[in-house]
């Protein structure tokens, strides 16, 4: 069964280090496994928390597009990052979880073509399309049986902030006064958004429970829900 | 968003030379672990959710902002208040996970008032009233407002059908959209009652406690305690839920109305503690060697025969200390929790003629206490003090630093508190 294969692969990946163009940033301790038995896919409900906001974004080719182009018609896992983020519990954790999930999904044929990843920068001044292309490395290239992972940014804060606020993603400035000079810092709490085919946010993960196993269960839950709706529609015909 | 705000935001983003992410696992001692902004330094404000009193000021429930920064010229003074225009037994409140909004409600009806505390933390603004809780869920008396990512889980105390204690939880989006209801279990030892809720994400556990229904909590306390049948209608359980699925897993017998639930914030701990109002006991909830969740009575608060009525607890950030307020004797007690299986009282002080809620700063050096329990349960005459008192705690003694007399200020009955900070002004608001 493909889901079991995916879970087995996730277990193996839990001990794997991330490699790639940004190894220094993305590498870290092995991904943790949850300290509990997650509920089985389909045994719980993922509520429609809110509609994913829309706005203009830039792909790695620099072409402006609507974010909704990347949040509809497939199940989407979206996370905000900035490429200079160094906190192992922040953006790099999301990157590593996405990496693990990408391989797990590649090993599960029934998930092929049904899931995409979106990594969106909230530092447009630094993270140009070119920087995002470098950050993505080979991950932005779709391999056979894999999924598309889009690395997006925005032209400026004017385009970014409605998206940040629409998702409820915190960004704020803090001041580090520990050194001789006061330093401004950009602070946020890691959030990753699971979005269904209709563009509704169905789960919001924080670092306290961003486990690949849980995300995969949630993706399967959405697919089971879709299958149930199709079955119901077929009966009504 | 205006142009100036955008310019500031651009400045904020572009001026950032060193960018850090702060993954937050806990808030200043008693909030949801999903709340994103800690106040680790000096708090600037205490928000007090205040019950209206007929003939006192406008007589309505209100959110009162008090300046608690000792460096401020208005230290210990009321800065602002927002009236709801009604009196609905104002009780508890809670932040959304982004700490931009404060949800507050009353126990005598089903409205939830949503205050914006991000645009100007010194002057909260009422931005929304949610009024569909009763119609959607059949529950009554929203009590606990607990942040989940992008959502608020609300624990009710009663129901609209018979106004008894059988109740449930209601899930809303942060935008105020009703999402789901969850009944407190009535089978398998469950009594269906509810009071507080608190989560442990690491263990995927949601823990709930139990109190009583509208028919009891809206009744004068003197009448209630003489009614033997009514006194049987209090919760005697806590429930362990699968947090992800929001499904009950196990009902724990905790007799005597277990109220506030505090998980230890120490990352190495996986236990929670509560106090029972009627039996005056401390109970510990933790996993046994087999991984099963168990509740165990671990301590006594005052003399239970005198019914001191423990009404609120506040755990220190390291999980090694616990404040307990007892309403009847007006005492604030400190328990050493270094060994949570055997809490040991090390300090007590009368902090008012009646005391209810207790909150502490992240560093534990400042402690805030309010006076009101419920409109019909507060004491009468000279004992009916209504206040917010701020204390300094040096590890050995509480020293009162300021007092706001809520009766003299014609505000009402001071109940639940949350802390605020100027630093939490939202960037989008120009900060």
Describe the model.
- The complex is a heterodimer of chains A (237) and B (431).
- In chain A, 32% of the residues lie in helices and 20% in strands.
- With 237 residues, chain A is of the alpha+beta class.
- Chain A has a single domain, classed as Glutaredoxin.
- In chain A, strands 1-10-9-4-5-6 form a six-stranded mixed beta sheet.
- In chain A, helix 1 (2-13) runs antiparallel to helix 3 (91-106), helix 1 (2-13) packs antiparallel against helix 6 and helix 3 (91-106) crosses helix 6.
- The two termini of chain A are 31 Å apart.
- The model of chain A is unreliable at 1-25 (pLDDT under 50).
- With 431 residues, chain B is mainly beta.
- Chain B has one domain (3-429): Methylamine Dehydrogenase, Chain H (7 Propeller).
- Chain B has five helices and 29 strands.
- In chain B, strands 4-3-2-29 form a four-stranded antiparallel beta sheet, with no helix packed on it.
- In chain B, strand 19 and strand 20 (293-300) form a beta hairpin.
- The interface between A and B is large, with 57 and 49 residues.
How is the main sheet of chain A built? 6 strands, mixed
General form of chain B? globular
- Return the average pLDDT of chain A rounded to an integer: 83
What fraction, in percent, of the residue positions of chain B are helical? under 10%
The end-to-end span of chain B amounts to: 13 Å
- Low-confidence blocks of residues of chain B: 1-27
* Radius of gyration computed on alpha carbons of chain A: 18 Å
In which order are the strands of the major sheet of chain B placed?
Answer: 4-3-2-29
Number of strands of chain B: 29
Estimate nothing, just give the exact number of structural domains of chain A: 1
What is the CATH first-level class name of chain B?
A: Mainly Beta
Q: What is the CATH C-level name of chain A? A: Alpha Beta
CA gyration radius of chain B, whole angstroms: 20 Å
Query: SS-based structural class of chain B?
Result: mainly beta
